[in-house]
Amino acid sequence: MSEAAIASRGEPLARRSRWARFLDSDLFSSFRRSKIAMAAFAVTLLFFTVALAAPWISPQNPYDPAQLELMNSNLPPLWQAEGVRPFLLGTDDQGRDVLSAVFYGLRLSLVVGLLGVLVSGTLGIGLGLIAGYFGGVLDTLIMRVADVQLTFPAILIALVVDGVAKAALGGHMDTDATIALIVVSIGLSFWVQYARTVRSQVMVEKGKDYVQAGRLIGLSSPVIMVRHVLPNVTGPVFVIATINLALAIITEATLSFLGTGLPDTMPSLGTLIRIGNGYLFSGEWWIVAFPGLALAGLVIAINLLGDWLRDALNPKLQ
């Protein structure tokens, strides 16, 4: 038998072996023992699935003005006397189906949250690696900036970044530019946790033998940091990223609720809550209730997953 055939047959076996090792790992065993973690994972997976499938499962495209009818505005949920098909959860003041708006709002909130975590994680991990590995003036400068930022609430940092950028650009931005600005604002608000955690881990790792061996054979500092040190400090980073995903979604919702986030034409969950808040005391409770429940359920599920992951990766609790 040729070497290529052996390699082609051995590759799936290697994949199965890696999957089998994962199924036998302490992490998966801890997951199976935790009913809360499994329930939180199921709810989170449901929200992600609904968000991805929104264009196919939504009764209406709430972002398409051609599909909106003002005659259908402020209709109650279907189970009430004045409910009308196919508006299961009722409609808002623009005749927008609340269920469809929640599905699409979930999509926007998750996209902004994930991109915000990616930006903050990339920035924080990079600065933490530099501060921990090189030390000295760079370490002092980065950590003092982090200390100063910690004195301000994250939402205030996001509001300042958002306001300054809009003032500099004249306030004339399309939807894509607005989303990018919100992502950057969230990223600049949450990088400190990554930087401080990675710095402390790197300061421990850089004194170990494998780092010294890399220096002796002539590897450059960026190669040592990225290819050898970084994989050994990713455990706490995953925990921070999971918890920060919930914080990023809440921050985006807060910005949108305050009117500085996404426009009404492409509302996230925060924008839907802001729109519905104006009709809460006039009896149209469903406009704010269902987006609020979706946001609360998503954030709680992600936070529960983050709590489980933190405990599962804590060697003191093993």
UniProtKB/TrEMBL annotation:
SUPFAM superfamilies linked: MetI-like (SSF161098)
CDD domains on file: TM_PBP2
Pfam families the record matches: BPD_transp_1, OppC_N
Source superkingdom: Bacteria
Ranges where the ABC transmembrane type-1 domain occurs: 106-306
Residues annotated as transmembrane: 36-57, 110-138, 150-171, 177-194, 237-258, 285-306
Cellular location(s): Cell membrane
Similarity annotation: Belongs to the binding-protein-dependent transport system permease family.
PANTHER family xref list: ABC TRANSPORTER PERMEASE PROTEIN, OLIGOPEPTIDE TRANSPORT SYSTEM PERMEASE PROTEIN APPC
Protein name from the UniProt record: Dipeptide transport system permease protein DppC
UniProt source species: Methylobacterium iners
